[in-house]
Amino acid sequence: MSYVNDCVLLHIFSTQYYDIWEIMVTFVYRKKCIFEIGVLAMLNMLVFSTRLQAQSSSHFNTIGGNKTIEIRRISTPDSLAYDDDDEYADEGQIADVSADSLTSKMPMVALPLKSLKVNSPFGMRRDPLNRKKVRMHNGIDLSARYEAVYSMLPGKVVASGYSTNGGYYVTVSHDACVCSYLHLSKIKVKRGQYVAAGQVIAISGNSGKRTTGAHLHLACRMGDAKGKFFDPMVILNFVMQQMLSTSRL
């Protein structure tokens, strides 16, 4: 009964505060949306903090030089290619989102690969190793053939090594979340090392038991390594939006 009363009060409140009502409805009925908003808010704070650090080490600062990192800029940031039928497509196929030859001196965000094609999205799917079973896919699979893997955001390497199912992996903490890159062929960073956005952290591969072909598995958790999994597309969309807004400056 109290739930009904709360809804009535919210409706009355909304007659004069429509914008606030929309936010409250989102909080009540869209937990997933709330979760993603929280992640994006923290990521925006991370990027803002990185910009401040970059400004403090600019050429106006006479103590030390200004260090920049080149990152790839995408040509069509509005969408990604999905191909769930051909889970591990041939590298020669053209991705809907690809990197061009342009670069940007912007050490805040970067794509994890030179070009992106999502072979298998986040969510429930048929097990690629046992098509009779349906199980949760706690990440996304990106088409990659033994190529450089870049850190999407500045952060600290909190784990790296080898696991039976995921093969060689690297996990980077960005305070708001942690991102893991799996099935690698070579690790380029060490635990405890700080990395910049766009820095090469590994080479993709086909290691581990839960793989049917070379690709990059990207998994993201809220908070720390024990947090809840969420769709890495939240991060990728954020990265692309940041790149697009910067390209317009």
UniProtKB/TrEMBL annotation:
What keyword terms does UniProt attach to this protein?
Answer: Signal
The record's listing under Pfam families reads: Peptidase_M23 (PF01551)
| CDD domains (alphabetical) | M23_peptidase
Molecular-function GO term, any one:
metalloendopeptidase activity
Q: M23ase beta-sheet core domain: which residues?
A: 135-222
Output the superkingdom of the source species.
Bacteria
Q: Which InterPro entries match?
A: Cell_wall_metabolism_enzyme, Dup_hybrid_motif, M23ase_b-sheet_dom
Which protein is depicted?
A: M23 family peptidase
